[in-house]
Design brief:
With about 475 residues, the protein is mainly α. The chain has 19 helices and 12 strands. The chain starts with a strand and ends with a helix.
Length: about 475
């Protein structure tokens, strides 16, 4: 048997990091088994689907290494609508489904409770199809449905507690539950690896597989991804869009390494490992069924490690989208003609050790490429206290006489200026840094002054002095 897995996202919004985790797990499992990864876009929610969301899914998968052309698909669920309807007809004709005209209010009135489920009222009424009549699956009254799950063992569900559920709406269109089963059958899916939130639907789907005369797939429900409050990650509340992390400057290698740790760990006391190790060691049977905490602080630390592991050349290349802007990344605060590739290359090794996401490159280097520094007023107020004007005057006078404009000379000169005023270097350089870069933190000051150049640096020091009393 050839293993066939599927990833089946809906194009109704940004690509969820939990979905990305499931896609990677399916991808690796298929590769390990010499199988096939199928991408199926479940696009039957016409009111919410948008073409750009579909492209977003494909683009996000490309980014994490599941590239177009390397898998089967994408298929679109809407193209299989006739198969869904045919399956609904077969279930009705075989007596496994029946038409029902009950409203929710009627069922609740019969039960005397607004919380009651459907009571099977129409099971034996023999209603034909008709406007407003839903098709319900007749669940067994006795016995149990056992879901054999590679991660969760054998969850068991009492059939009597599973209400007769709707498989086609009043207008005849099959619901997602049936469409999902039929698509998996049609595409020969052998293993369904998906999030735990789908587990409650699994006994219903397994009953549908059995009723349609096909052996159910092997199930594997991976743990739900939660936030720091142990709440399921929500698009409304949490930062969950994979594209947002990409555009903020997280590296794909760091992201997929971290995603694979949500419920699983490689051997030994290590977490940051090459992708080849993950591909070799990952086992579905070793996935922890407990909820997995998506820790953005930890992801950020991971990303910083991956950034520092890049060669300088690769780091420069990785920064380029933030230095120029793209369709999804805002342009930097300088004009393209103002960018100096040589100047950036000179400070890139300094920036590489200081940033955790690539978007942070912009505030670290913008002083090099704008005509005047972008002054942070809070930083100005903090640095430009009494005595700052005198210090800047003395610094300008000292720097004007230098015959060598290099970091060591600039440092020793400012150190002497500060010492004459009873200031250690840390205090002396604060007004100079804000005058030149606009901020109190950033790249090493003296290397920055060296790259900025004598004339521009002195001009900024003089301009800052003018602002002071």
């Amino acid at each position: 048997m050839t293993v066939r897995v599927r990833f089946a996202p809906s194009p109704t919004g940004m690509f969820h990091v939990g979905g990305a985790r499931s896609a990677l797990q399916n991808w690796i499992y298929a590769k390990q088994q010499g199988g096939v990864f199928v991408l199926r876009v479940e696009d039957t929610d016409a009111a919410r689907n948008r073409p750009e969301w579909t492209e977003g899914i494909l683009s996000a998968l490309d980014w994490i290494g599941i590239e177009r052309g390397s898998y089967e698909g994408p298929y679109f669920q809407s193209q299989n609508a006739e198969e869904h309807r045919a399956a609904a007809r077969r279930l009705h004709e075989s007596g496994r489904a029946y038409y029902c005209d009950c409203t929710r209010e009627a069922a609740q009135a019969r039960a005397g409770s607004q919380y009651a489920g459907y009571d099977g009222f129409c099971r034996d009424r023999g209603l034909p199809s008709g406007e407003g009549r839903a098709l319900r699956f007749r669940t067994p009254d006795e016995g149990v449905t056992v879901v054999v799950d590679l991660i969760r063992g054998k969850p068991t569900f009492e059939n009597r507690l599973i209400e007769d559920f709707v498989i086609a709406r009043g207008d005849g269109s099959p619901v997602f539950l049936l469409a999902n089963v039929v698509d998996d059958m049609t595409m020969g899916i052998t293993h369904v690896i998906r999030a735990e939130e789908h587990l409650p639907n699994t006994p219903k789907q397994q009953l549908l597989w059995d009723a349609l005369g096909v052996e159910p797939p092997v199930w594997a429900h991976v743990p739900v991804v939660v936030n720091e409050k142990r709440q399921k990650l929500s698009k409304r509340r949490d930062k969950v869009a994979l594209e947002a992390y990409r555009d903020e400057g997280y590296l794909a290698d760091a992201m997929r390494n971290y995603l694979m740790l949500l419920g699983w760990a490689p051997s030994g006391d290590r977490e940051i490992v090459p992708w080849s190790v993950i591909e070799e060691e990952f086992r579905l049977s070793e996935v922890n069924p407990s909820p997995a905490f998506f820790d953005e602080k930890k992801l950020r630390a991971f990303n910083g490690e991956y950034i520092r592991a890049l060669s300088v050349e690769d780091f420069v290349d990785a920064c380029r989208p933030w230095l120029t802007g793209t369709d999804t990344i805002a342009p930097p605060p300088w004009q393209p003609a103002e960018f100096d590739a040589d100047a950036f290359a000179a400070v890139a090794p300094l920036a590489q050790t200081r940033i955790a996401v690539l978007s942070e490159i912009v505030p670290n280097v913008d002083f090099l490429f704008v005509e005047s520094p972008l002054i942070d007023e809070a930083a100005w107020a903090k640095a430009m206290k009494e005595g700052a004007g005198d210090l800047l005057d003395a610094t300008v006078a000292a720097y004007e006489t230098l015959t060598s404009w290099d970091a060591e000379t600039l440092k020793s000169t400012l150190e002497a200026v500060g010492a004459e005023r009873g200031l250690k270097l840390g205090k002396a350089q604060a007004p100079v840094r804000v005058a030149v870069t606009g901020r109190t933190v950033g790249l090493p000051l003296f290397e920055s002054l060296e790259v900025l150049g004598r004339e521009r640096a002195l001009a900024r020091l003089r301009a800052a002095r003018v602002r002071l009393p």
